[in-house]
Amino acid sequence: MDDQEKQTGIFMHEAGVPEIYSGIGPWRLAASHSAWSADVSAFGPWDNASATGLESTGKLWRARGYDGSASIHITGPCISTMDAAGELIRRGVMKPWSSVIALQQTAGRGRRKRRWDSPPGNLYGTWYWPLSIKRDDPAAGYRNLASLLAGDILAAVLREQKIGVQIKWPNDIVLDGRKLCGILVEGRGAAVLVGIGINVVSAPKDGAADDDFALPAVCLDPDGRHFRPLSFWTRLMETGRAHFESTLNTLRPPDFVRRLEGNLAWRGRRVVVRKEKEPPFEATLIGLAPDGAMTIRRNGEMEILYSATIRPA
């Protein structure tokens, strides 16, 4: 087994890292929620993974029933999967294109550091993208579009499963006008960490958010019987990377933005816009500028916004 094969697979970390993430084993994960039990069985049996070259993290379990190309790490409760990913990258465990998912987050965060409710049963993950900062690298032009590119990839994989979602600018996925997924992007040198939270079995109640402008939320599968989180995540990691590479190889950033516009929530409709230091106002959502900014028509005048929150009027 070469080094690449050792690093590929689904790894469950039974040993935690104090103040960052707790460990978890297959039986505990299966018992945590019905949404996980079928996946633990489907990808099993789980073997001791001591010969992977990842020993610096302590005892690992590896899914014998997975032979795909992704590298996925699973932990118990963590501060956030962004923090868990940062620690695994620091240890040399997570390489570009690998990811980490966690049973639960104790301090999950969303855009502008807002708290992300993270109970067991939902899907919380961080994906490690290599997005160069070198100007002569074609990928560098996508760095400022990372949240839209992640949304495009996530929406495409959800639609493959007959889930009719749209992209809410700049970093959410909505289903029937309600928030289903949140995306958070953080730059780490020449890499980008893409945090993804999906309401699989539960969602905050209407009005429960600490922001009264927030969209109401929705979940996919309240009984946890039909949507399998680990199965979906492996699909996202494998086909998502192919989607990413195809996009970068075939489309200039402005062409990608033009394509994405077709799946933009509330395009052509009246929306309420909230900008910092300005009361909310109504406008018509026109679409996107070539650099990914939102374009609106307000009082007959076109405006380009780089930072704002929107919801349907």
Describe the structure.
With 313 residues, this protein is α+β, with helices and mostly antiparallel strands. The chain folds into two domains: 3-263, 2-Layer Sandwich (BirA Bifunctional Protein, domain 2), CATH 3.30.930.10; 270-312, SH3 type barrels (Roll), CATH 2.30.30. It has seven helices and 15 strands. A ten-stranded mixed sheet has the order 2-3-1-4-5-6-10-9-8-7, with helices on both faces. The protein has a five-stranded antiparallel sheet with strand order 14-13-12-11-15, with no helix packed on it. α4 links the parallel β4 (71-75) and β5. α2 (26-32) runs antiparallel to α3 and α5 packs across α6.
**Shape category:** globular
First-residue to last-residue Cα separation: 57 Å
Number of strands: 15
Largest pleated sheet: 10 strands, mixed
Radius of gyration, taken over Cα atoms and rounded to an integer in Å:
20 Å
CATH class of the largest domain: Alpha Beta
Tell me the strand order in the biggest sheet.
2-3-1-4-5-6-10-9-8-7
Taking pLDDT < 50 over at least 5 consecutive residues as the criterion, the unreliable ranges are 1-5
Q: What quaternary form is this?
A: single chain
Count of DSSP-assigned helices: 7
For CATH, the homologous superfamily of the largest domain is named as Bira Bifunctional Protein, Domain 2
CATH topology of the largest domain: BirA Bifunctional Protein, domain 2
- Quote the average pLDDT: 88
Sequence of secondary-structure elements? HEHHEEEHEEHEEEEHHEEEEE
What number of structural domains do the residues give? Answer: 2
